[in-house]
Amino acid sequence: MKKVLAVLLAFVMIFSLAACGGSSEEEGSADGTKVGCIFIGSINDGGFSECMNEGLEKAAKENGMTLVKKENVSDSDKQASRDAATNLIDQGCEVIVGCSFGFGESLKELADSGDYDNITFLHFSGNYQNETNMENFFGSMEEARYLSGMAAAATSKDGVLGYVAAYPYTEVQIGINAFTLGAQAVNPDVEVKVVYINTWGDAELEKAAAEQLISAGCDVLTYHADSTATQLAAKEAGIYTTGWNYNNNVAGDSYITAPYWDMYAYFNPTFKAINDGTFKPTGNQPFSSYGSMQSGLICLDELGDAVPEDAKTKIAEVEEQMKAGEFKVFSGEIKYNNGKTLCKDGQTLTDQEIWKISGEVEGVTATSNESN
One GO CC annotation, please (predicted)? Predict the structure, then answer.
């Protein structure tokens, strides 16, 4: 009878973990604070989840913390993310990290419920935060996107660039517009063609969109989606590509650079503050914590051999200006592609104004493919 009960309990535990989006993996010091991490994909995806995991592991090791991980949790299923978070809390996690935009609503409800006031919630992107136990974090990725746009335009022979994009959502459009403005700084007549795939990550849809852009005459591709499918499509077609999220070149000589996150730059000081009891969300809008190239959160990978030397020099100059706080991407007269004004002559958009962007700038044409 005891054996039967043991087997039944084992099945219950397995089912519980599966319902919360995959296995739970524990790494780090057994005595350290437990940090529960919810990932939209695999931590070995070569893209966003791997980038996030790398920063978490490095910061956790330095601060004596233990990571408990849940991978492949759908961020479009509110109950799945809620279940994943509560399961991690039940395992003794005192910190919950939501590693995708779509986890924000569930984590905010838990943070505000009054049942988890002793739990610290950290959430990437979105606008969910409070002033007690939930912080959201992001950064001025428009800086690295702008620089990658310069590199793309300098490498392109035809002046037609392709952009595989997740959703027509502000975060994504900030990147599209910054990339386009950087490209226009090199070639004012450059065209940027965008295909929205309406999902954060689906390798098949990403590759199909990349191939659609290649057929439309694009000779350099970039992307805002979670996998490396766009890089691989560019490599197969013999054209150039940037990476995204993570400095991971899977395209060989076709790779020219990548805007990417160094998540350690956020997690290390945050974990230190949690350990010493000084952590408190700022409650600032639109984000509690907002990094930059200056802070080290936002990075640009090394430039590939295909980027001309004079362009490399110019890109390096602008990057240094960004790190010194002397160069702002959304500054001066900028118009949307429908003729409306995004930024006036003599104006520099604040972070709050940047996060109200709703459309693409002049020089961009966009289409939308429905996800399955």
Answer: plasma membrane
Residue 15 in domain: no
List, as one string, the DSSP characters of 324-363: TT---SSBS-EEBTTS-EEE-TT-B--HHHHTT--S-BTT
User: What is the amino acid identity at position 234?
Assistant: A
pLDDT, one tens digit per residue, over 219-278 is 999 999 989 999 999 999 999 999 999 999 999 999 999 999 999 999 999 999 999 999
Is the same domain home to 187 and 270? no
Same domain, 44 and 110: yes
Measured distance CA(318)–CA(303) in Å, rounded = 14
- pLDDT at position 9, please? 40
What separation, in Å, do the N-terminal and C-terminal C-alpha atoms of the chain show? 47
- Is residue 41 exposed (0-12), middle (13-18) or buried (19+ Cβ within 10 Å)? buried
Q: By C-alpha distance, which of 59, 46, 39 is closest to 246?
A: 46
> What is the extent of the structural domain holding 326?
142-260+298-368
Beta pairing partners, 68: 26, 36
Asked whether residue 255 falls in the same domain as residue 273, the answer is no
Q: Are strands 66-70 and 24-28 parallel, antiparallel or unpaired?
A: antiparallel
- d(Cα 78, Cα 104) in Å, to the nearest integer? 9
Give the span between the Cα atoms of 29 and 33, in whole angstroms: 8
Per-residue pLDDT reduced to its tens digit, 70-100: 999 998 899 999 999 999 999 999 999 999 9
Q: Are residues 168 and 210 in the same domain?
A: yes
Q: How far apart are CA 46 and CA 296, in angstroms?
A: 21
Read off the tokens for 43: 């931590």
User: Does 5 map to a domain?
Assistant: no
Q: Is residue 46 part of a domain?
A: yes
Rounded to 5 degrees, what angle do the CA atoms 350, 353, 358 make?
145
Distance (Å, whole) CA 282 – CA 271: 15
